[in-house]
User: What shape does this take?
Amino acid sequence: MGLEAALPVDSFLTTQLNKVINWSRRSALWPMPFATACCGIELMATATSRYDLARFGAEVFRFSPRQADLLIVAGRISIKMLPVLQRIYLQMTEPKWVISMGACASTGGVFDTYAVVQGVDQYLPVDVYVPGCPPRPEMLIEGIMAIQKIIDGENIPYDGDGKRLPLELAIQPTYEPAAQPMDVSVGAT
Ligand code: SF4
Assistant: This one.
């Protein structure tokens, strides 16, 4: 349940108020990082001065789920960790969002074993998939911006029972890979 529950039914004032609420929400996403492996390093880089997640109002990483509304799963999740991840998700504030960052979080990656979850979307409602191994910080920012656009447009999808549906957006790579340096070789004299 969100702030909207306290508002009167549709009126001019409600519409304007909703715009302000959505603007505040999208300008102050508070991420809850669940970083278990190498993707976590890129996640940390996203908050540094070079990539500056603060430009999008989402740099306040919270390690308390009750103060966070954006869960970023970065890295492989083992079956043993899964109940902890689910509990963290349940404790987060509404409306809440989930980003699955990297191949391991989204599919298990190269870890095709019985001990690793083969995609967190089997257990959590994932809104945005950020592909890559690891994804670059720019791509994570792209994923956060996709969520901001949905909040802005007030397109938060609900099912018939008022339960929020996952967005299931997949981010496409937006950078050109640089060419390998040609004149560097190991043991060159
Ligand atoms: S997707 Fe690649 S970089 Fe990310 S956790 Fe898995 S192995 Fe590491």
